[in-house]
User: What shape does this take?
Amino acid sequence: MAACAPARRFDGDRCCRVSRGVPAECGVHITLLGAAMMGLAGTTVQTTTQSVLADHHGPRRDQALIEMNIGAGLGAVVAPLALGLSEAITSTWRAAMALPAVAMAILAVVYRHQPLPAPPSRPQPATQDRHAFRLSIACWLLCLLVAVGIGVEFCVVYFGAELLTAAHQLSTSAAATAMTVFYAGILLGRVAGARLTRRPGQTSLLLGLSLAVTLAGLVVLWLPGGPVVALLGLFAAGLGIANQFPLALALTLAAAPGNTDAANARAQLLGGVLVLAAPFLLGSLADHIGMTAGFAIAPLLTALSGLLLHAALRRERLPLPTPR
Assistant: This one.
């Protein structure tokens, strides 16, 4: 065996750096494989859970999805706190990674006999045409609306602090801290959304209101009005973005009776594409014409969301074509 430095360990044909007894370089491929598996499994869990909730709650799916997103937001706050606490107590962050596995194992044991709700029955076509259960155009428009909303949110998450620095002269540390205002708006918006959706039949109205608040907040954030005005716009943007995903997804699933799993999968797929494409487009434009001009992508996409909602609602009011 080849000789390695005291802080390194021999692994096959090379020496690997050792951190707290664990080879940090040699196991990178295993870590990447695990991350890919968690990404695949996590997306599957999210998609199926949303479909099950929608089938179980029916017309009240909007409130259920908003409350689910409140829980997800709380989880996003708890996760980094758990990592930091684990590092402080055990001198390693790896202990905290066991918490989700333990929690899911407990849920699996406690609810192992809980039956899943039966999906709503599909309307029977006149013939066995394989195209009879295609998603409607309105459903596809709403799927795209879900995806565009996700893209706008990630544009603000990735480039909000840079815009505050470039357009409003905040320091880097102050801009990063100021992004807390955005997340506070999201949390408050989701709590308010959970109350507003207690009255059924308000999903379309609330989504339109959310888009209007988001657009107003993004325009205020984008225009040169000074740091205080920019923070107010950032808060309003978070307030509006908070419920766009659950409300748009609720309308998407309502437009696909008996086929919510397929509609949800399409919405998640388009959302994954827009998560990559929208921030990439904004960043590319910022490199060429500046951050302030490039950030105009966010309000423009929000305006596009309003047009998609209008078009989808108009299509939904039309009588469905009879399958041949």
Summary: Residues 5-15, 126-132, 318-324 have pLDDT under 50 and may be disordered.
